[in-house]
Amino acid sequence: MASKARASRKRCACLPEVLPAGMKELLGRTGGVEGLKASLPEVEEIARAAAVHDAMADPLRLWIMHMLRAAPLCVCVIKAATGVEDSKLSYHLGILNRARLVARRKEGSFLMYELTGTGRRWLSDCEL
User: Fold this and answer.
1) Same-domain check for residues 63 and 14
2) Can you give the pTM of this predicted structure?
């Protein structure tokens, strides 16, 4: 058991003397591990990007976003186009709205949804 732990430590060692030359050079240019960590996006930015990826990871939500690319649509049109029940559609539109990929507004008695600028950018990045 002790030899297994020793072997594991050998494989994962990040001591400068055991790093490959290319890795040492990279860390030297970035300011070491601390410099590398400082260059990473803030935790909040990572969380936001993860939320967007989660929202876009569902085929129905992507389908809805592609429909909204053409024009803002009311819920009844989205429902007719997708054939999805009200509660399921509301759930998916809520996820897209919380991820700030779509925005909603009242227009008379209609609830309209449209892509946000963020939604358009993310959708264009995953062009089909």
Assistant:
1) no
2) 0.70
